[in-house]
Amino acid sequence: MAVEPLSRKEIEEHLSELPGWSLDGDRLTRSYRLDSHFAAAALVVHVARIQEELDHHSELTLGYHSVALAVHTHSAGGAVTRLDVELARRVEEAAPAHGAR
Predict the structure, then answer these.
(1) For labeling, which of 4, 7, 11, 19 is most exposed (least CB within 10 Å)?
(2) Residue 89 to residues 28, 37, 38, 83: CA-CA distances in angstroms?
(3) C-alpha span between 67 and 14 (Å, rounded)
(4) Is the C-alpha dihedral spanning 88, 60, 47, 19 positive or negative?
């Protein structure tokens, strides 16, 4: 089933419910700061599991005390779709358990 790109207005509506997330060009992005490298690595593993469950993957960067994500849907021409919003929502729910801020 093909996913359709979201309009700019739809993206903005979804972003209003996703604190810390923003639209950077054609991608939804978010960076998290954590208390330790271990906590950041644990969050990456959790995000990887979410991505596997959704069969939808982001660019995921592990830093010393940070994790950054950038996501868009390749099969929709690199546009933002409901899959990207769902991934962002699921990550946002998981992040506090790892001490992300």
Answers:
(1) 19
(2) 11, 23, 23, 10
(3) 21
(4) negative
Long-range contacts of 9-16 (CB under 8 A, 24+ apart): 11/80, 11/85, 14/85, 14/88
Say if CB 26 and CB 80 are below 8 A apart: yes
Q: What share of residues in the chain are helix, strand, coil (percent, to 5)?
A: 45, 20, 35
Kind plus residue range of the DSSP H or E element containing 86: helix 82-94
CA-to-CA distance for 41 and 39, rounded, in angstroms? 5
Tokens read off for 51: 């991505």
Q: What is the mean pLDDT of each run of 10 residues along the chain (101 residues)?
A: 90 97 97 97 98 97 97 96 98 94 91
Sequence-ordered list of residues with C-beta below 8 angstroms from that of 99, at least 6 positions apart, any chain: 34, 35, 39
